[in-house]
Amino acid sequence: MKNSFYKLSHFITDFILAILCYNMHGDRMKKNIKVNYKSIFKYDDHHETVQFKSDGIYEKGFDKEKFTFYNNDQKIEIILKGKEMTLANGPSLLNLSYHRKIGNHYHTDYGMIELFTELITMEHDRYLKVKYILSDEHQQLSEVYVMMKYDFYGEENEAI
Description:
It is a single chain. By secondary structure, this protein is mainly beta. The chain has 1 helix and 10 strands; from the N terminus they run αββββββββββ. A 10-stranded antiparallel β-sheet has the order 6-5-4-3-2-1-10-9-8-7, with no helix packed on it.
């Protein structure tokens, strides 16, 4: 009896250490999440808000994190890599980098157009808060705020 308890405790210890080493070495981790998403588009004279809750997937690799979730049938992906961010919302693909204007393909009701993004701030720690500027070649069109709280299944998901 004592010997089987000893073997079981070593098995559990080895299992836990294997999990810790797996994550410490930057190997890929994939978990189901609950997402509480909100974005605000501020224009000169008005603003628009998009807010929803969704289930999704969180993936973490050695040098990046990826969030995949849906708003109705529209797939949304957010990829964080250092001081850069990629936001794919359906056919729109935005690449954002700190204080650097980047040309992007932006989907509108009138078709795809080229707009420029500039990442102003990004905070990330079990939530994501982003502010970026959206402009055309000549002028700023809007300030965009993205706020996303995410929790792994089994944890509380609070409002933003």
